[in-house]
Design a protein that fits this description.
GO terms for molecular function: oxidoreductase activity, acting on the CH-OH group of donors, NAD or NADP as acceptor. This is Putative short-chain dehydrogenase/reductase family 42E member 2. Belongs to the 3-beta-HSD family. Pfam families: 3Beta_HSD. This protein has 413 residues and is of the alpha/beta class. It has a domain of 270 residues: Rossmann fold, CATH 3.40.50. Helix content is 42%, strand content 12%. The chain has 15 helices and 13 strands. The strands form 4 sheets. Strands 3-2-1-4-5-7-11 form a 7-stranded parallel sheet, sandwiched between helices. Strands 6-13 form a two-stranded parallel ribbon. The chain has a two-stranded parallel sheet with strand order 8-10. Helix 2 links the parallel strand 1 and strand 2. The structure holds nicotinamide-adenine-dinucleotide. Nicotinamide-adenine-dinucleotide binds next to helix 2, helix 4 and strand 8.
Length: 413
């Protein structure tokens, strides 16, 4: 607890905020769960730069140095006594931590459920016990998108996608956690007062030093595993730059205060850059900077979906021996091949959210400049993987008509 107290005393004086619409000075004691991860860390640093004192609570240490006003405390959000200690004296919790969003993590059901559902429950309980009046929850567009097209959807008209029909544990658990957070809005705090909660639903996040999507996509492209494209070229999705993500979170926390009439209390908001694009077009700078040609072979989405199903099963069978990451999961195939775009009018109107313009190519440049060069062993592995995937695709093509999963997928479109 000393570390927390020390960090709180180190509250810096007000410096100018570079985040549009956010106050230039924030006197807040904030806890950021998942603060060791990309977005949580950036959020914590931005809060500190505006004068807040910040505790990053995460099982993992941030990859980057913590500036003045920020302290990292190793905390598992499934450990209630640890959370209680970290939350003591805080004014606002940004609950950013999650598990299982992409790649092989998506298949680790038990970890996903304990972190995303149980962890969220404990965080909410800690807010009530430690009299923390504000909680901003980072959710995901996946709570409403489950593989059926959504064009310019808004918060009021889109229902939750039925939980039992979501194909991945991450989306299912984010949906359950989001609903728990909203249900907790208005709960009594133990020392008097009320807990105000709100939810932000970002799409895919990008930015310099992003660790989750960009390095993985680059690897896949370099291994020529993305030599094919799938899905209709008119399919669109949104993205959000990490600085816009940060801006929205700071504004949401402000909008849970009496000064802002608690306007965000019990509300959900879609947030993104205010643009939509086709994934394969959007990735053009990455293909170019890696010196790889853009995919020109178009293969049926149902074939890719079948491969993803096969790879998920293979992963489950082999997991006791080796954790073989699937190239794509079913959820990722849906994300790429089905339009899902959202309106951000509500965030603009109620939070004052004003997304700044960013170029994905800048994040790619940053990645290319800072990454280590691939070794000969990695190049050899790339060739092996390319052959393996080619084999699976040929095998599945020959079985195409016999796979019931394809009939299922075809039936949805
Ligand atoms: N990255 C995206 O494209 C994207 C898209 C939509 C929504 N989101 C949401 O945004 C949030 C942040 O995403 P990110 O890209 O920074 O992810 P990230 O993986 O970089 O960060 C998540 C952090 O949570 C931490 N964590 C996991 N289990 C924990 C536990 N038991 N206790 C404490 N900490 C734990 C991890 O160590 C990690 O540092 C997440 O809630 C995610 O669901 C992300």
């Amino acid at each position: 607890m000393n570390a927390v107290a020390t960090s709180y005393r180190r509250t810096s004086d007000g410096r100018q905020s570079k985040y549009a619409g956010t106050p230039s000075k924030i006197s807040m004691r904030a806890v950021v769960t998942g603060g060791g991860g990309y977005c949580g860390y950036k959020l914590g640093c931005a809060l500190a730069s505006t004068g807040a004192s910040v505790v990053l609570c995460d099982i993992n240490k941030p990859l980057w140095a913590t500036p003045n006003g920020v302290v990292w405390i190793q905390t598992d959000i499934r450990d209630y006594s640890a959370i209680l200690a970290v939350c003591e004296g805080a004014d606002c919790v940004f609950h950013v931590a999650s598990y299982g969003m992409s790649g092989t993590e998506q298949l680790h059901k038990k970890e996903i459920e304990t972190v995303n559902i149980n962890g969220t429950r404990l965080i909410l309980n800690a807010c009530k016990q430690q009299n923390i009046p504000r909680l901003v929850y980072t959710s995901s567009v996946n709570v409403v998108f489950g593989g059926l097209p959504i064009e310019d959807g808004d918060e009021e008209s889109l229902p939750y996608f039925p939980i039992d029909k979501l194909v991945d544990h991450y989306s299912r658990t984010k949906s359950i956690a989001e609903q728990m957070v909203l249900a907790a809005n208005g709960s009594a705090l133990e020392g008097g007062g009320i807990l105000h909660t709100c939810v932000l639903r970002p799409p895919g996040i990008y930015g310099p030093e992003e660790q989750r999507h960009l390095p993985r996509l680059a690897k896949i492209i370099e291994r020529r595993l993305l030599s094919f494209k799938f899905g209709d070229p008119s399919v669109k999705m949104n993205w959000i730059h990490v600085e816009n993500f940060v801006q929205a979170h700071i504004l949401a926390a402000e909008a849970l205060t009496p000064e802002k009439n608690y306007i965000a209390s019990g509300q959900v908001y879609f947030i993104h850059d205010g643009e939509k694009s086709n994934l394969f077009e959007w990735l053009t700078p990455l293909f170019e900077r890696l010196g790889c040609s853009k995919p020109w072979i178009r293969i049926p989405t149902c074939l890719v979906y079948a491969s993803a199903t096969f790879m998920e099963h293979l992963h489950a069978i082999l997991r006791p021996v080796v954790d073989l990451p699937p190239l794509l999961t079913r959820n990722e195939v849906q994300n790429i091949s089905v339009t899902h775009t959202f309106r951000i009018d509500k965030a603009r109107a109620q939070l004052g959210y004003r997304p700044q313009k960013f170029d994905f190519a800048d994040s790619v440049d940053h990645y290319i400049e800072s990454r280590p060069q691939p070794s000969n062993y990695q190049l050899f592995l790339n060739i092996l993987l390319t052959l393996f995937v080619a084999f699976i695709l040929v095998f599945l093509s020959s079985k195409l008509d016999n796979l019931s999963v394809l009939h299922y997928f075809k039936g949805r479109h």
